[in-house]
Prior knowledge:
The chain is of the alpha+beta class and about 300 residues long. It folds into three domains: about 5-80, Alpha-Beta Plaits, CATH 3.30.70.3340; about 95-155 and about 215-290, Sulfite Reductase Hemoprotein, domain 1; about 160-210, Alpha-Beta Plaits, CATH 3.30.70. The protein has eight helices and 13 strands. The chain has helices spanning about 5-10, 35-45, 70-80, 110-120, 170-175, 200-205, 240-255, 275-285; strands at about 15, 20-25, 55, 60-65, 95, 135, 150-155, 160, 180-185, 185-190, 210, 215-220, 230-235. The strands form four sheets. Strands 5-6-7-12-13 form a five-stranded mixed sheet. Strands 1-2-4-3 form a four-stranded antiparallel sheet, with no helix packed on it. A two-stranded antiparallel ribbon has the order 8-11. Helix 4 packs parallel to helix 7 (about 240-255). The site of one iron/sulfur cluster has 12 residues, from loops.
Amino acid sequence: xxxxxxxxMKGGVITERDTEYxxxxxxxxxxxVSCGQLRGIADIAERYGAESVHLTTRQTIExxxxxxxxxxAIARDLAANATPVGSERDEIVNVIACPGSERCIFAxxxxxxxxxxxxxxxxxxxxPVKIRISVSACPNACTSxxxxxxxIIGQIRPIRVPGLCTGCGTCVExxxxxxxxxxxxxxxxxxxxxxxxxxxxxxxxxxxxxxxxEHYLIMVGGRRGRHPKAxxxxxxxxxxxVVIDVVEKIVTWVYRRAWSGRLLSDQLDELQFGKFxxxxxxxxxxxMVVPENSGGISDGSER
Length: 303
Ligand code: SF4
Ligand code: SF4
Ligand code: SF4
């Protein structure tokens, strides 16, 4: 017997095949859970009869086979554990992130802090369509941001200190995109091939390649599932605070204009994505926007 319709109607409560039971999905921004919280979830799961939990693709923990009659108490216990009931329906669902600058040698940004800040601003907001948000700290894109409704990738552009390149070719070897060659004894970048991963910056033994500064590529309208689709590039900005503001503007735009019952990726054109992109670019201060395809390994004369 379902006692609390309000809690049961939340997206974090999922009716199972055997409709006598439900699965409870927790809210774990960026997939970071303390050891104490982990023990707390295990205790709660055991207390209400689960023998195991399930780790989801959205970096949350689900507790399966819960009696809907215990929903109130389980929700209370999970909230006390700071891992409350999450979301799964047409809402902003758990924001995911790769390990980022805290641990990964490839990271250009603090993806976990950014995902947690976005979660704090927007988690659980009811929407006409489901909004999945993913942050990856480099173009290796381990959390598949390009396949989420909103995806963010941390990038940096290489700039060579003027006039000092030895032509040793180390950066050429490290670049997986074949985007660098040696011409006239200097490294030269092919802008069209560069994905702005920053690997060459870290590879130069003479520290002659500098970062143009971390920046954040924001994409909209990707999806996984039956017919995966890559998101479209919206804007590249220079600070996490601007990312959060832009993500909020995307959410407001979708909330006001999108239709229910269809994935966001299927209605981007009807929502006039191109016009929205122009509006966003006009709204963000020019000095916070990274121009397309500029920079690269040069003698810095472009900057
Ligand atoms: S996306 Fe990049 S920074 Fe993040 S875990 Fe993968 S390789 Fe590391
Ligand atoms: S930043 Fe560009 S040039 Fe440097 S390693 Fe990455 S893809 Fe190659
Ligand atoms: S930029 Fe550095 S690594 Fe690349 S060729 Fe010049 S000295 Fe070597």
